[in-house]
Amino acid sequence: MKKLLFLASLIAVFSCEPAKEKADLLVLNANIYTVNDAFEKAEALAVKDGKFIAIGSTSDLQDRYEANEVIEAEGKTLIPGFIDAHCHFYGLGLNQLKVDLVGTKSYEEVLQLVKDFQEANPSNFIQGRGWDQNDWEVKEFPTKEALDELFPDTPVALERVDGHAYLVNQKALDLAGITATTRVSGGEIIKKDGKITGVLVDRPMGMIDAVIPALTKQMQIKALKDAEEICLDYGLTTVNDAGLMRGTIELIDSLQQSNELSIRVYAMVSNAPDNLDHFLDKGIVKTDQLNVRSVKVYGDGALGSRGAALRAPYSDQPGHFGAMITPVADIEALAMRIAASDYQMNTHAIGDSANIVVLRAYKNALKDKIDRRWKVEHAQVISEEDFDYFEEGIIPSIQPTHATSDM
User: Fold this and answer.
1) What φ, ψ does residue 223 adopt, rounded to 5°?
2) Which of 85, 145, 323, 391 is least enclosed by beta carbons within 10 angstroms?
């Protein structure tokens, strides 16, 4: 009888204990930096459905939660995921399909890498990215003659590190219909002694893009997954992609919904007419992983490719001031249209001439509109007298690594 009473007492005691909450993951005995307002530290955290549901001490969370997966951190440090405020996430993935020319120290090295890549990965249109003539002993734009000799029958397009210039061969020029008499506003087809050198700056690059073979859907998916793998390896869990087409945004959303892509993406919509019509009519798109609420506009080019629009001429190129990629009147019209929606406007502006155009357009469009958080992307060269425009709630979005390398 006593034994029965004892067992009944035990059952009563344990049945009174509250049931533990369910979590997908528990991390215990960690050195956790919360980075909250008080910059508190913790030992443990619980995750459910991809979200943090609790932080605290190991003993407290062990008492409160049971999880399918438990990680014993053994004192390792855990910090929140990094957010990249301006990148080209999809472009990063696409670059994995091209010749990597970053860090090359001469044009000869570029040529050898392209030759080796084509031998290992035969392509009917060779693409590469990353060269920077400012890293070479001869700090001048290359010319196409050597590419013509190596690849007389295969088009080649090699993008400069800043994404604002191509070096192309004659075959690519022929496919695009570019000749010495071709005129394109918003950039430059560089010539020497009246002949095309093969370097195209800003807008003329679009003529080459138009003849590059389209990617299959599987290649696009691979590019996105490759980019995600690289970003997650660096601790990036959210990326702001500065310029995406509707089809790419919808593909990202589809992959996220099917749990094939886990990274969070803040997508700036490229300001192509079809993109604008679709998203401004649709309104803000917001899921747990995707945020579409801004339009990306290109004001000018970059300093390194001599396309940034300056008030004074480039010191090494007398009489050259760079150029606006998007005409001033178009920027002003875009600002008024976007201001009438709930979308942000994020405009690339590097030179001081481009920056004042964008700042004036923003100020005019944002009259009586509070906290719209419009951004000037890069904002690298700004005249001191123009600083006051940022008091109007305009945000300078500056990337130190871009500013210091774009020379």
Assistant:
1) -60, -45
2) 391
Task: Name the token pair of 55.
Answer: 């932080």
- Report pTM: 0.90
Handedness of CA 315, 320, 321, 322 (dihedral sign): negative
Q: Give CA–CA dist 118/2, Å, rounded.
A: 86
Residue 145, CA distances (Å) to 65, 85, 149, 169 in order:
68, 39, 6, 8
**Cα 81 to Cα 60: distance, rounded to the nearest angstrom:** 24
Take residue 150 and report the two structure tokens written for it. 């190596």
Enclosing H/E stretch for 118: helix 107-120
**Is the dihedral angle over the CA atoms 177, 179, 181, 183 positive or is it negative?**
positive
Measured CA to CA, the distance from residue 236 to residue 368 in angstroms comes to: 36
Q: d(Cα 214, Cα 203) in Å, to the nearest integer?
A: 19
What pLDDT is attached to residue 361? Answer: 98
Which tens digits make up the pLDDT trace of 136-159? 999 999 999 999 999 999 999 999
Torsion angle of the four alpha carbons 203, 205, 208, 209, in this order, in degrees rounded to the nearest 10: -90
Decide the pairing of beta strands 156-160 and 126-131: parallel
Amino acid of residue 169: N
337's CB contacts (< 8 A; 6+ apart) are 276, 280
Largest Cα separation within the chain, whole Å, is 111
Confidence of residue 380 (pLDDT cuts 50, 70, 90): very high
Q: Domains, the chain, ranges and CATH?
A: 21-80 (2.30.40.10), 99-210 (3.10.310.70), 217-406 (3.20.20.140)
